Every structure is written in structure tokens, then in C-alpha cells.
Request: fold
Amino acid sequence: MAVLRSKRFDLPAQAQFAALSGDFNPMHMDPLAARRTQAGAPVVHGVHALLWLLESILEGAPAIPRAGALNVRFRNVIYVDDVADAELVQITARALRARVLAGGVEALSLSIDFGEPRQPGPAPAVAGEPSEPVPQSPLDVGLDQIAGRRGRLRFVGSAAAAASAFPNAARYLGPRAVAALACCSSLVGMVVPGLHSLFRGLELTVGAGSSGADELTYAVASIDERFRLVRIAVVGGGLSGSLEAFSRFPPVRQPAMAQVAPLVARGDFVGSTALVVGGSRGLGELTAKLLAAGGARVIVTYQSGRDDAARVAAEIEQWGAECGSVQYDVRRAASAQLAALTHAPTHLYYFATPSIFRRRTAPYDRTRFQDFNVFYIDGFAELVTACQRLRPDGLSVFYPSSVAVETRPADMTEYAMSKAAGEILCQDLQKWLRGMRFVVRRLPRLPTDQTGSLVPIKTADPLPEMLAVVREMHRAPVASGERVD
Reply:
């Protein structure tokens, strides 16, 4: 199987396809929002990759029989700035198979069944439903609101615009069919399931004609609640068939101050100044709230989520506690960034992390391991040393390890290795740095953005877990050299 073409899907390409399709779902366009999805970073529109694959197959190729049906599966995400490869797997008298790979992993598979054009299937019954434009923002709806939804969604990009963007695919399928495929992307990403969607695939018959309005008629045909899988019947642009998409769980929301405050007395942590690195969301946010509820002065840091950090600080201050926020990047020199602090921390909580779950391309990924080490070892060691200079009379440090060190899940080799090395580092820092006390915990799987899943999974309650950590951190300081917990 030879590579037909390669392409780097960059941000300008993302913007061009979003404008053509109307699919501005933040998982494709907004790095801050995308980091709160299972992907952890912006991903390429699946239909964009599909149309590019068709362009690659048809570029300079001998005449390929007309398509009777398309079957597509989106198997793995393609991250923005990934280099994707288009491959023609097989072509026979009856069918063609091709795929897109990213990092050596199959991201998309395509089957084209050859055959005479067919009449489109019956359109879903949408009597009385007005034609609707693609919404400006993706709809935030739950499964109960998706059931039974139907309508007629107007194409954002014209057939001429679709043909200009994907000329080979337009000559092969017809310009309106390409516009309809682009509209399938906006249907899934903006309407049904909308904001929390993940396109799984499509099965479409290529019809004989392309008459009719420039719109996609759709109806939710079924929902499998076990997997949050939504099946949508569609007709438009000479195509008919069905789409499948997952409705992802929304990003995890941490408990509010009103829920956290009753767990601690107002004076439990008074007199302490806590620097919570990565406190703008997740376990860092929850820890900051626990500390504030007990009377600690809290400083949360953020690397890029300024608005998230401001939201956390505002909630804490509205409750009546003290909380500030500063930008901090563990990949940059620590001392210069800590100069922004107005109070030297007595306690340091370290929740900085890159995206944990990423597409695996080999049994061991050296680059991935190095990325983890930048956060869990190098950046941590430098920050601890810098904080010790600010507070030479004593500092308590929390290092969150993971049960993955001892019961390693599949595809988490580099993560577990780096966390294990971080535990060893804490033991040695304890011996070398006077006045320091380290608390290390192998935390169970807790509900955060990083641990989200398409299906319900068992997680521990984060409140008692983190409250136990905070209370342990506020034990009386110990002499240098005490054994790490």
C-alpha cells in the first residue's frame, strides 16, 4: 500500500473547512475548550479528512467506476498539525478501499461500492418543520433532548464553494453531494448531538439526481444509551442513508464552594499560603476550594486557562476567602515566574500535567515519555527548588502520583514510568533540601477532564480523597530527612 499524498492539517485549513461546513465545534477550533475533551487538543473534522482522502484517490487516477455507496468509519482522531497520509488499500471491479493514517495509526477507513446511481432513499418525515440555518454556536443538549429530533438543515457552503475546495470529489460525486457531506459535519457538530459530539461514521447511498433544495433533511432514528450512540437518518444533495455519532459526557464540573465548605472548619488551614499549580480546573480547583474553605490564603496558577482561573478565584472570593491567580508554565524558568507572588507559599500542590491519553503509535514513544518528564520531573524539581528559596524555613509539597504505577492500564507505559520516577525524585529531594516535607499519594481514578470516557466508568469520590491529602499536608512540619509518605 503506497502513500498517495500527505498533508499537514493546520489551523488555516481548519478555519477554511469550518467556514465551508459551518462546523465550528470548539473541539475543532478552540484549544482551551478542546483540552477539556477526551482528545485533549483540537482535532481535525472527520469529514474534512474524508474529502481530502477522496481528492487524493482521484488525483491523476485512471477512471474509477461511479460510486453507488460510501461507508466511512472515523477510528481515531487526527490532531491539528498532525501529518496525515492517504493510502489506497485495494481496488477491484466492485469496490475500493482506502484509509487515512496519522502517526502510523488508522484514523479513517473508506469503502466505496461501485454501482449505478440509485434513487435517494425516502426523506425523514419533517412535515411542519421549518428549514433551519446552522446555529452560530453548537447546541448543548442531552440525550433526552436529542430523541426524536428532526428537521431540515441548510447547507452553509454552496455547491460551487464545495467544488472549488474539493474539485476532484465534486467531479466524482457531484458538487451538491460534497456540499451535503460538509453539511453532515455541521449537523453532527452543531445540532445533533451538537456541542459534545464525536462523529463515528456514515453509510450513504449516492443517488441518481441532485435536484431539490440545498439542505439536509434529518431525523434521529435511534439512540443506544449504553454507549451514548446516536443514529441519524439523512437525505440531501443526492445522498441518503445514516450517520452515527457519540454524545460525549460534558466536561467534569468540580463541586461548588457551597458543597465543599461544610467539610472543613473555617480555621482549619488558617495562617497558611497555598500555591496550587494547575488550580484552574480539575483536582487543583477542588483542592483550592478545600484550602480556602479552611481559611488558607490560596494562589491558583494557570498555563493558558486564564478565564478558568479567574472563575475559580471569583467563586472563592465571593464565598469570603482570599484567592489570587497567576500564570505559570512549568516549561519555563520557575524563579522569574514566581516573582509575581506577593506571599511566599507555605504549601505547594502540584497538579501540572500534559494530556494523558493520546493516540499510541508504538509500544514505547520516547517523545511522549520526555513530554511527561518535563511536567512530572524537570518542571517539578525546578519549582520545588525555587519555592524552597522563597520559604527556607519550611515548605510542604504534595506530589500526585497514580495507581497506574502499580496497576498500569493499557497504553499508559510512558505515563506510569514518569510518575514512578517522580516518586523517586520526591524521596531524594526530601533528603537534599532542608525544611522540606513531601506528601506523595497514588491517587485512584478520579472524575476529571482527563479521565472522561464515552461510557460510564467507575471513579472514586474526589472530595474525601483530596480532603485527606490537604489534612495530611497540614500536619506539623517535620525534620529534613523524614521518610516520604
